[in-house]
Amino acid sequence: MNMKKIGVCLAACLLFFGLGIQAWEIDRPCSVAFESSAFPELSEANVVIDIYRIGDVVPDPNYDTYSFETEPMFNALGLSDMSTLDNERYTRIASQALDIVLEKEIKPFKVASLQNASELSNGLYLGVPHGADLDAYTKQNMRGETYTIAQSPAHEYHFSPILFSLPTKDKEDGIISTGNGEWKYDSIITLKVEQEPRKGSLEIVKTLERFDDNGPATFVFSIEAYEDETMETLVYSNVESIVMTGSGTQTVLLENCIPVGSYVIVREVYSGASYEIVGSDEQVTTIRPIGSDHANVTFTNDSNDTDRHGSSVTNRYTYDERQSMNEPQQDFGGR
Questions:
Q1: Which of 57, 136, 161, 198 is the most exposed place for a label (fewest CB within 10 A)?
Q2: How far apart are CA 128 and CA 118, in angstroms?
Q3: How confident is the model over 289-317, as pLDDT tens digits?
Q4: Residues 6 or more apart from 91 whose CB is under 8 A from it?
C-alpha cells in the first residue's frame, strides 16, 4: 500500500471516530416555550409549568449526539442514550421523575407560563404543568402513573409531565435521529392535555301550600341532563324524592354530580293521590360554573281536597365497572 492510500484511510478514520466532534454550540443559550391550542377555555385555568433540571447533556466525542448525566437524586431513572427514548418511554420516565420530585419535595428550577419562552442552558429537564391556584394538583391513572391537573370554572384538565432536553432535533419515527437534521436551540413544546367537565350541583325546591293530614306526602322527580340544548347526548339521569309532613318548603340537593353547562330537565312524575301541581310539572335549567350559585328548580303543590292517600319508594342505583350487573351499588343521591 502506498503512502497516499494510507493517508486517505487515516483521514477517513479520523472523520468517522472524531477527535472531539462537537454536536452543538455548548455555550449557546437555549429556550423553551409551552403551548396548547386544543381547548380555548384552558386560558381560564391559571396554568403554570414548573421546570426541574434533571441533569446535564454530555456531547459524544465521535457522533452528532449526546448522552445524559443525571443529578444523583434522579439516577434511578436509568437515563443514558437519548436515541433509545421513544415517546412511550419518555412518558413513563417523566412520570417516574415527577414521583421523585414529589417525594423529595424538590423546588422548581424555573416556573414558566403558557406561550412565554423561558431561557435555559443546555440540559435535561422535566416540565410539570398544573393549576397555580391548586394546593393538590396531582392524581394517578389506572396504570399508577402520576399526572397533574388544572381547573377552569367548567372543566378539569389533565396533563402528562414532559421530559425534554435542550438543544434538540426533530423526531423521526418517534425518536431523535442522531445523524440527520439541525440542532434546535429554541424549542416549542405542545402540552399533552385532556379535558373533562367538572360537576356542578342542582337543588330541587318543593313548596306545599296545604297539607291534608293524610300522612307523609311524597313527591318524585326525574332528572335528565343533556350535553346541550340539542338533547342528543344524555350525560346524567336520576330520580329523587321529597317527603313532607306539613305545609311549607323543603329541598333536595344533588351535589357535584352533573356536568357543568348541562341542559337539565326536571319533571315532577309523582305528586301523591291527594295533591295537585300548581303551574308546570316540568322545569328546565343549566348547571352553572363552579364558584357560582348552584342551579335550582321550583315546584309548587296544593291539596286537591280529596281523601285519597298514596306513597312511593324511590330506589337509585349506579353501576361500578368493577361490579357485575347483578351487584348494584346503591346511590343515595341528593341530600
A1: 136
A2: 14
A3: 888 899 999 999 999 887 655 544 454 44
A4: 145, 160, 163, 192
Of 188, 99, 198, 170, residue with least CA distance to 141: 99
- Helices (H) and strands (E) counted in the chain, each on its own, are 2, 24
Entry pTM: 0.74
Q: How far apart are CA 233 and CA 227, in angstroms?
A: 6
307, 310, 284, 288: which is closest to 297 by C-alpha? 284
Do residues 69 and 84 lie in contact, with contact meaning Cβ atoms separated by under 8 Å? no
Pairing of strands 30-35, 199-208: unpaired
What is the CB neighbour count within 10 angstroms for residue 73?
15
d(CA 275, CA 207): 12
Rounded Cα distance, 238 and 331, in Å: 10
Provide the sign of the torsion angle of the four alpha carbons 273, 275, 278, 283, taken in this order.
negative
What are the cell numbers at 299? 315546584
Q: In whole angstroms, what separates CA 300 from the centre of its chain?
A: 40
State the Cα–Cα distance between residues 173 and 265, nearest whole angstrom. Answer: 50
